Amino acid sequence: MLLVLYLILIAAVGLGIYAALVRRSPNRAFVPMLGPGVVLLALAGIGILRLLPIDAAQNTTRVLIALALLWIGWLGLMALVVQMVQNRLPGSYPWPVLTGAVATLAPIAGFLIARTMT
Q: pTM of the predicted model, to two decimals?
């Protein structure tokens, strides 16, 4: 039960971060800044998971930090894609934003699917 509450909290925080990153009118100065941020977060998360020795049974902090970096990078990637689509197709306003909001829930859905399979 506690896991479900954590996932609901994480989903709400993720949607809040996504909503803060996606704006009604795309800002041309914001989009180029978001791209390198996403790449750096992804590299940091993968680097922590792959390069540092991890014993998940004893020290879960490193794993949680790496997963948080990858998750925030995923939210930034979804916001970046939505901003780029809105720059190219300004008349398609609500659909890219709604599709991106649903896509931010993909890591949580993947976790739930993996949890039910084991």
A: 0.84
